[in-house]
Amino acid sequence: MSDTPHLGPVPQRKTVDAELVSRLVAEQFPEWAGLPVRPVADGGWDNWTFHLGSGMSVRLPSASEYALAVDKEHRWLPALAPRLPLPIPTPVAKGEPGAGYPFSWSVYSWLEGEPASPDRIDDPVRFAVDLAGFLSALHSIDPAGGPRPGRHNWYRGGSLRTYDGEARRALAALDGHVDVDLAAEIWTTALDALWDGTETWFHGDVAQGNLLLDEGKLAAVIDFGTCGVGDPACDLAIAWTLLTADGRQAFRERLSLGEETWARGRGWALWKTLVTCARALERADEQAATPQRVLDGILAEYVTDGRPTPPGAAGS
Fold this sequence. Notes:
Blueprint: H1 18-28, E1 37-39, E2 47-52, E3 56-61, H2 64-67, H3 69-80, E4 91-95, E5 105-109, E6 114-115, H4 124-139, H5 164-174, H6 180-192, E7 200-202, E8 211-214, E9 217-221, E10 228-230, H7 238-241, H8 245-255, H9 259-282, H10 289-306
Antiparallel strand pairs: 1-2, 2-3, 3-5, 4-5, 6-8, 7-10, 8-9
Helix pairs in contact: 4-8, 5-6, 5-9, 6-9, 9-10
């Protein structure tokens, strides 16, 4: 259910409907042929997602780029799940191309919950601490053999410099609409923030659509298509895109994050938001107010808490 922009052109998506899913299931898993298939509301961009009966879901990559994650998820999610404090998707079966659909696809157990949003979260600080606890557990899992950043996850967990050209183009497009000088300073600070090279597991797309709530509390984390092993700073963007100011502070304290890691996380949030704002401006999108509010929050937080102190300024 990714809502994160991707590097480069938006992939050409293949349309999938319930009739096609029913044919695939009947051909490859006849034991489930009688189960109803229904589209999932707000099923995301990277995959077409459908209910299969009452206890399973079917996820079909919407383009060849997203299909690269199928084998990875089937290999690693069963290994990660027992080590995490919240439920994550559990693969039940892997389908193959067929019925005119060209990619491998997946059947998962269904996870109940509604996507997180500011108005649905019961206690923003508790939510932030719970999310930080989940990420702390994920980041502490032995990374040996895990998939490093690459085409399978749009280079999440790698260097922010991979996205420098895209961020600079977004800044140019937004000139006159936002404080691009300040945004460029934040971006440069993030690019210059050093990573010590210690690889950990990361989710790669910790976005509100991938965080499920039960009665306002964090109940599950889904969509590991961009997961991998590398720099976990990409998992911190949620601190600016969803959390409140108090929640963001609690989140940072729970994860014990230093300045360099926090700056890189801010950079991931900024890249995502700049690209989203630029695309919204280009399309005259009526929903542009939401990314604009996020961008305003990133700029304000940096000025208040994140701007490096100039040499010699301390104590002056």
